[in-house]
Structures are given as C-alpha cells and as structure tokens.
Amino acid sequence: xxxxxxxxxxxxxxxxxxxxxxxxxxxxxxxxxxxxxxxxxxxxxxxxxxxxxxxxxxxxxxxxxxxxxxxxxxxxxxxxxxxxxxxxxxxxxxxxxxxxxxxxxxxxxxxxxxxxxxxxxxxxxxxxxxxxxxxxxxxxxxxxxxxxxxxxxxxxxxxxxxxxxxxxxxxxxxxxxxxxx
Amino acid sequence: xxxxxxxxxxxxxxxxxxxxxxxxxxxxxxxxxxxxxxxxxxxxxxxxxxxxxxxxxxxxxxxxxxxxxxxxxxxxxxxxxxxxxxxxxxxxxxxxxxxxxxxxxxxxxxxxxxxxxxxxxxxxxxxxxxxxxxxxxxxxx
Lengths: 181, 141
Known about the structure:
The complex is a heterodimer.
Chain A: H1 2-32, H2 35-51, H3 62-83, H4 96-99, H5 110-129, H6 132-142, H7 148-155, H8 159-177
Helix pairs in contact in A: 1-2, 1-3, 2-3, 3-7, 5-8, 6-8, 7-8
Chain B: H1 2-14, H2 18-39, H3 45-119, H4 128-140
C-alpha cells in the first residue's frame, strides 16, 4: 500500500520532470547565458523539487512552483559568487553577439536575418542592463509567456510590483530599440 | 483615484507597439532555438567531468598527505627542540646551583675568618690599665 503510494508519487514527479525540464532550463539559460551553469541549476532545481515533492500542495501550478525554486537557486548562486570574489571567478557566459546568433531557421531572406539578428542583439543588450529582478520578470513574461499572476507567485512579488518591474524593463528595451521611452 | 491613475499609467506603459512586439517575438524565438539546441546537444562535458573529479581528488589527496607529513615532521621537530631546550635549562640550573654552592662556601669561610679575627682581637686601649692590674695581681699571688 505504502510502496504503491511512493511509486505513484515518483511516477507523477517523473512526468513533471519530462514536461517542465526544458522550460526551466530555457529560463535559466536566458538568465545566465551560461549553458553549463543553466544545466547545473536545472539539475539542482529538480533535485530540490524531488526532495520536497511530498510538501507540494498544488496551491500553484507545478511549473510556478518549479520556477520559484529555480529563481531562488539562481539568486543563491549569484549571492555565493559575490561572497567568493576571492576565488577563481571565471564565467562561461556567452557574449551578447553569440547569444543573438541563434535564430529560428525560417524561410526569411538574408537581409531579414541580418535585421532580426540586430534586433535580437539589441534586446539582449537591454536585458543585460536590467536589474536581477527586472530581468527575471521580463524573461518570465516575454520568453516564458507567463501571466502576471503566475510571475507574482513565482517571484513572491505583488502583481503591482511585477507590473512596475515590467514597465521599467520594457522602457529599457524600447530605449535600446530606439523607440519611445 | 491616485492608485487607479497609477494602474492605468502602468497598463499604458505595458502596452506594446508593433515594433516592440516584433522584437520581443524574435527574441523569444531566438532564446527558444538556442535553448532547444543546447538541451538536445550531445553531452561531451559529462565525459570530461569524472576526469576533472579524479584530478581534484588527486590534488586533494596530495595536499592532505603533504599537510599530514608537515604536521608530523613539525611535531617531531617541536619535540626535539623542546628536549634540547629542557637539557639546556637543566645544565644552566646545575651551573647556577654550583655557583650558588661555591658562593655559600665562600661566605661561610668569610664569616669564620671574621669571627676568628674578632675573637683574637687585642684588648682595647681604654681597658689597658685594668689589664695591667689584673696581670700584677697574678704575679703577687
């Protein structure tokens, strides 16, 4: 009886991993621009989630819960790095130009691809200048396409604060694109 | 009223014009393409990881052994050093005791010599007449 309950929980968790792992990895990759770090943090996120799976009450969606863990892990990572400034602080983050080279293989012309590359680069540049919180909120909204309520739950902020961060983030992106502020 | 104005202002700022919308769409597609490519790539790094771990382990062991060896030899040296110091201290104490004993002997000899000299001292001049009287008495008897 007990074993079957554990098996069921494990099966549920396995399904959650399969469904949400690529999305958590994508969010962490966009946040850090470091493939190895994103992989490590994704792994840590699911390890932590597995340990606490019994305590997950379904008050929010599994995705929001996982995203919250991922955001906290990322915060801890940067905090630890700041504390360990005396250590070898090599970063594997790819530069903005390399990040903006990834474009979907469509049927667009060479000219269009150049323009797209340029615009994506401008957005990356603006994203780099955002504060940690603004960046998190911006990526959740415009890459993960999360609702404001979901972002609020994942970040632990109020919806009003989420809106304020988004507004500032969008202002910077507009500024970088040369549009209105 | 103020908060509703604030809300409207924020909502207006969150409204996206076509240029921005296009840029955000391209950015999203770019991140998705990159993420998919990285997520499904063959993990060559995994093969390198254990080797790195072995290196770290080896360096850790070497450092550990060096630390233990350093600790043991340091302890041995410290023990030897203390023994030498104790020997030197003992020799110094013995020397001091010897000097003190010689000093004491000398002081005693000095004291005895002083006593002897005081006991053997001649009769003071003021007592001379009395001494003569005593000497005469002796001869008259």
